[in-house]
Amino acid sequence: MTPPSFRALVVEDDHSWQEILSEILTDCGMEVDVAGNLNEAVHELKSQSHRLAIVDLSLEADDHNNYDGLRVLETVRNTDPGCQTILLTGFATVELAVSVLTEFGAFTFLRKENFNRHEFRENVYRSLASAPKQAILEPDSEPLTDTLATRPDLSSSPSAGAARVLVVEDDAGWRDILEELLVDAGFQVRICSGFGDALGSLRREKFTLAILDLSLTGDISDTWNPNQSHQNLEGYQLLENTKAGNIPTIVVSGVASPGDIMRAYAEQSIFAYIEKQTFDREVFRRLVEEASAARLVGGELSNLTDREREVLELLAYGMTNKEIAEKLVITTNTVKRHLKAIFEKLNVHTRSAAAAIFTSHVGPIKKLV
Predict the structure, then answer these.
(1) For the segment 34-63, what is each residue's pLDDT rounded down to a tens digit?
(2) 102 falls in which pLDDT band (50, 70, 90)?
(3) pLDDT digit string (tens) for 255-281?
(4) E strands of the chain, at which residues?
(5) Do both 169 and 291 map to the same domain?
(6) Is 144 inside a domain boundary?
(7) Number of CB atoms found within 10 A of residue 108's CB
């Protein structure tokens, strides 16, 4: 069990949630203090040091626009930097989640509607085993109210024929962030929290893109040892499978050393590596778009023979079959055979559709003189 000298702080205005969280933390071997509002939380934080704080976002039951939980995170950062924080909330947009994990240095965020005792317990042990993040807001950072002012509509769901993306992440907060960003971009998302589930999905299903963490923490023993590392890099084994399957892969992780990152690029040919500590949703969206395009170029177009690519390129220039035949010094019947093969490989039925695939992923085409 966790040494009893470790103290936890529960900052929650709902009495039922206070009891639930206190019970679990006590079972983990921690001494628990409870605060029902911002002032009480500040008092507790200034009175004594805590190793972990579980913080609700809204500390006013009748005010859904109350964000006192973020003020608590600021206070923890300023007065007790050795304290890890977990935000537990009834709602969280992508903007809020990213802000909490990066700017405010929280270990993770969890949704109340998806609360699971075992998962919460695992997050407690993982947070204790990790060095606290001491994130510092820059002087010109946006005010908290500005950070939460824009709430995008994430209610739209991807179409049935949307491209499929595999997300492999053991942290519930990061799973939610990545899933919402990808769904908002129109993808179907398959979520896996561990190595076995992810490996099975890769063998059973086809994916356009993979997003994965390198360190996938398995079950953590109830006996927590601060000197024992629970970090593993099972994600590297999954990279071997995504590489073999020609699936562009973006790593989103916070544990790898420069050597690990170089190894992932050199040996497993990952598309990009994003550090969680500096995660930027716009950069992520851009990389996802570029990786999806790379899949088409490296996948569908790579299935074409050299001659078929030549024919497709000339087709994209707007040439007729006769012009293509003259340019390549072949017969028009041969051009027709190549076009039939191209259409089958690209799964299209018209010249314009084939040309569109080529131009959208290779770049603008200027008509030959």
Answers:
(1) 999 999 999 999 999 999 999 998 888 777
(2) confident
(3) 767 887 888 888 888 889 999 888 988
(4) 7-11, 31-35, 52-56, 84-89, 108-111, 164-168, 188-192, 209-212, 249-253, 272-275
(5) yes
(6) no
(7) 21
**What is the CATH classification number for the domain harbouring 344?**
1.10.10.10
CATH of the domain at 215: 3.40.50.2300
The span from the CA of 238 to the CA of 193, in Å, is 13
Query: What is the number of domains present in the chain?
Result: 3
Domain ends where: 282, 298, 314? 298
Residues with Cβ within 8 Å of 92's Cβ and at least 6 positions away in sequence, in order, are: 57, 100, 109, 111, 176
The span from the CA of 129 to the CA of 126, in Å, is 5
Its pTM stands at 0.56
Domain that holds residue 351: 301-362
How far apart (Å, rounded) are the C-alpha atoms in residues 276 and 162? 27
Q: Indicate whether 143 belongs to any domain.
A: no
Beta-carbon contacts of 249 under 8 Å, excluding residues fewer than 6 positions away, are: 209, 210, 211, 212, 239, 242, 243, 268, 270, 271, 291
Whether 285 is covered by a domain: the verdict is yes
Residue at a domain's end among 268, 298, 328: 298
pLDDT of the residue at 346: 81
Question: How many CB atoms sit inside 10 A of residue 92's CB?
Answer: 22
Q: What gap in Å lies between CA 174 and CA 181, rounded to an integer?
A: 11
pLDDT value at 226 more than 60: no
Query: What strands lie across the sheet with 31-35, from one edge to the other?
Result: 31-35, 7-11, 52-56, 84-89, 108-111
Question: How many distinct helices (H) and strands (E) make up the chain?
Answer: 15, 10
User: Are both 170 and 291 inside the same structural domain?
Assistant: yes
The lowest-confidence range among 41-55, 229-243, 292-306 is 292-306
Q: Are residues 37 and 121 in the same domain?
A: yes
